[in-house]
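From the methods appendix. Each design record in this collection lists the tokenized structure first, followed by the designed amino acid sequence. Records were kept in a plain field format so they could be parsed without special tools. The example shown here is representative of the layout used throughout.

RECORD:
FOLD TOKENS (97 positions):
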């Protein structure tokens, strides 16, 4: 990555536990692909879980992609190619994305 990396968002969010399928999933890409950057991105995020996060709570989820793969602008095509990885962890877990 280049020298001008920055955090893309700083915030605090609380999601209560739920029963059944999550109703708040809405897939989107946080930023566009930046071809001039080796990892196709400039912004990174650090997520710190303040409580235990598992299948019964809201979690951060990603659909991985490699810089060696073609860019897929179609959301459904990306989800089919990369799948969905739900990131669970105990309170204090830190996730860089």
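DESIGN:
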């Amino acid at each position: 990555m280049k020298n001008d990396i920055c955090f893309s968002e700083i915030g605090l969010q609380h999601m209560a536990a739920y029963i059944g399928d999550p109703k708040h999933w809405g897939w989107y890409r946080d930023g566009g692909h930046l071809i001039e950057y080796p990892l196709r991105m400039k912004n990174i995020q650090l997520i710190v879980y303040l409580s235990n996060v598992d299948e019964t709570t809201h979690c951060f989820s990603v659909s991985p992609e490699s810089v060696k793969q073609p860019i897929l602008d179609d959301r459904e095509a990306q989800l089919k190619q990369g799948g969905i990885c739900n990131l669970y962890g105990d309170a204090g877990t830190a996730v860089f994305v």
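APPENDIX NOTE: The mean pLDDT is 81.
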